[in-house]
Amino acid sequence: MRTLWENRVWPLAVIIMIFTALIFISTLVAGPAEGFDRRGRMGPPGMGENKKDRKKRAEEIKKQAVEQFEKMCEFLELKAEQKKEARKLFDQRQKKMKKVTENMQDRRSNPADARDKMGEIFTNYREKLSGILNEAQKAKLEKWIDDRQGSGGTGSQPPN
Question: What is the pTM of this model?
Answer without folding.
Answer: 0.60
